Amino acid sequence: MATESGDTLQQLCWPEDQLEAALEALAHRAGLDSAETAPEEPGGSDPAADIDGRIQRGAQRIGLEVEAVSVGYTELVQLLTSAAPALVRLRFAGEDRFLALCSGGRRRLRLLTPQLETRRVCTHDVVAQLTGDLEKPQRQRIQQLLENAGIAEGRRAGAARALLDESLAHESIGACWLLRQPPGLPLWRQMRQKGVHWKLAGLIASHACQYLLFLLGWWLIGVAVLGGRADPGWFAAWVLLLFTQIPFALLTTRLQGIVSVETGTLIKKRLLTAALRMAPGKIRHMGSGQMLSRVFDAENIESDALHGGFLILLAVVELGLMVPVLALAAGGAFHLATLAVFLLFAVVLCRRQFLLRSRWTDRRLSLTHGLIEKMVGHRTRLAQQPPADWHRGEDRELGGYLQSAIASDDAMTRLVALLPRSWLVLGIAGLIPAFVGGAQGGALAASLGGILLGYRAVLKGMHGFTNALNAAIAWRNMRELFALETARVKTPSSIPPGRPAAERGQPLLYARGLRFKYPNKERPALRDCGLNVATGDRILLQGTSGSGKSTLANLITGLHTPDDGLLLLHGYDRSSLGAHQWRRLVASAPQFHENHVLGESFLFNLLMGDCWPPRNESVQRAYAICRELGLEPLLQKMPAGMLQTVGEMGWQLSHGERSRLYIARALLQNAELVVLDESFAALDPENLRLAVDCVKKHARTLLVIAHP
Ligand SMILES: Nc1ncnc2c1ncn2[C@@H]1O[C@H](COP(=O)(O)OP(=O)(O)OP(=O)(O)O)[C@@H](O)[C@H]1O
Question: Any idea where the ABC transmembrane type-1 domain is (predicted)?
Answer without folding.
Answer: 200-349
